[in-house]
Design brief:
The chain is mainly alpha-helical and 477 residues long. It is built from 20 helices and two strands. It has a two-stranded antiparallel sheet.
């Protein structure tokens, strides 16, 4: 009697994972490429994601503080492992939308947020088609799409109730606390000095500015935990003190400023004056811009090239900031002036997404040049709103600014319509995070980074679903 081979045993998940691991090991030995070792874990994640999409989503959240930039080729780099997880989760989201159409259609969605987000993507597509660097612009569009799919749509789809939101907050708090302990332990070896702050955050963060930005944007989470869970109050007090110490030793002026704006946002939310505070902030910024631009007054503040240098001592760094001899501040002025001059003649669709670096030099003013103006890291304007104005024109800036205003308006209404402390805390955290993201992006370009961009679109996804349950018109009280 002949035996038949039972194929089904080899198609079980455990067998397929084992086969993938063995195959990956063999391929690694044959090709001398260690990347194939990841076939087994990759298959495990893929299989788990097909069974339960939220596993991949929460895994993505956990990896955000621990992801590092890697260069795959000379022209292609990525943030690993969170960006590959975004690609995979984006595909899973699309697959779920197709397979579970009825269930997806039943999920509440805030129509205004959805429409303005869609309009934002449409305008990026339009400006990419007319771009002076079409391939670079469409690479930007592709990255924007997987951020929106994996993080905004992913949060909308996977965070089904407040328990899921609390779990997401716990994961982000836990992983960021572990990252902070790692950074502080490295920084302590050099005596917490300012000039070693960048080395201390490697490899998980590009520099101390990115580290401080993520830290401050997640700070509302342990603060909310301290308020909502009195039985764990001592633990949260310890976490908050640790994070505040880490924020101080990040030596990030932008993060400190963002912390202040976040605190003022919470106060304004509770006092029901958020719209007045936002209006006052916008008026102040416009007044400063007009002051410097009128009669080319900004030329009076051009730096001394020889004296505008990097200061390794933080006290000297702060003194140089208010004396206008700090190299990072003056380099910002150098690029901001170039950005404003680039707008003329390109008001409608701009130069195209991802094109600033390739176009700004002819528009720069030489008297603001610094020792780092050769820009070897290929960074951009250091002001996200000016970047939008240059690359997507006035409509692009108006659309995104409207998007931010709508997110804050929805979060504000959610806070004041919420009946219990948990929902109020969620709405308040989201408002504070969005305002801090705005403050950080006045001095940096962080929406397209895996750290701050991820947090921003997670907040968008939560508002998209949970604020969508509210009526569009205020309830009569």
């Amino acid at each position: 009697m002949s035996r038949t081979l039972n194929i089904s045993r080899f198609t079980e998940p455990s067998s397929m994972i084992l086969i993938a691991m063995i195959s990956g090991t063999v391929l690694s030995v044959m090709t001398r490429q260690l990347i194939f070792i990841g076939l087994g874990p990759l298959f495990l994640i893929a299989w788990a994601g097909m069974q339960e999409i939220r596993f991949v989503y929460f895994l993505l959240l956990f990896t955000i503080p621990f992801s590092a930039e890697i260069q795959i080729t000379d022209a292609l780099g990525t943030d690993f492992p969170d960006e590959p997880l975004m690609w995979f989760l984006s595909m899973l989201i699309l697959l779920h939308f197709m397979v579970y159409r009825k269930r997806s259609a039943a999920i509440p969605v805030h129509p205004i947020i959805f429409l303005i987000l869609l309009f934002h993507l449409i305008w990026i597509t339009f400006s990419s088609v007319l771009s002076q660097h079409v391939i670079l612009s469409f690479k930007y569009l592709a990255a924007k799409l997987w951020y929106v799919l994996a993080l905004a749509a992913g949060s909308w789809y996977c965070l089904r109730d407040r328990r899921d939101i609390m779990l997401a907050a716990s994961i982000l708090t836990g992983s960021m606390t572990a990252a902070i302990l790692y950074v502080l332990s490295k920084h302590a070896l050099s005596g917490f000095t300012f000039d070693t702050s960048n080395l201390s955050v490697e490899p998980f963060f590009r520099n101390h500015v990115n580290y401080g930005a993520l830290l401050v944007c997640l700070l509302p989470l342990p603060v909310a935990g301290h308020i909502l869970f009195p039985e764990y109050r001592r633990m949260f007090e310890g976490v908050i003190l640790l994070w505040l110490a880490a924020l101080f030793f990040s030596y990030s002026r932008g993060a400190w400023l963002a912390a202040l704006t976040g605190l003022l946002t919470v106060i304004a939310m509770r006092k029901k004056i958020l719209h007045w505070a936002a209006g006052a902030g916008i008026a102040l910024l416009l007044s400063v811009a007009v002051f410097f631009m009128q009669d080319n007054r900004y030329l009076e503040f051009s730096p001394n090239f020889e004296r505008t240098i990097y200061h390794g001592d933080f006290r000297q760094h702060l003194q140089a900031t208010y004396k206008m001899t700090d190299i990072s501040s003056m380099e910002r002025f150098y690029r901001w002036i170039a950005a404003v001059r680039m707008v003329s003649g390109n008001e409608l669709h701009g130069f195209g997404p991802n094109s600033f670096y390739h176009e700004y030099r002819p528009y720069a003013v030489r008297s603001f040049q610094t020792y780092v103006s050769d820009n070897p890291e290929r960074s951009t304007v250091h002001n996200y709103f000016l970047l939008l104005l240059v690359e997507q024109g006035i409509p692009g800036l108006v659309i995104f600014s409207s998007f931010l205003a709508i997110l804050l308006w929805v979060a504000y209404r959610w806070y004041h319509h919420a009946e219990d402390k948990e929902e109020k805390a969620i709405a308040c955290c989201i408002s504070a995070i969005i305002v801090m993201v705005i403050a950080l992006n006045m001095l940096s370009d962080l929406i397209e980074t895996d750290k701050i961009g991820s947090i921003f679109f997670i907040c968008t996804g939560i508002l998209l679903r949970h604020a969508g349950k509210m009526p569009l018109k205020p309830a009569n009280r």
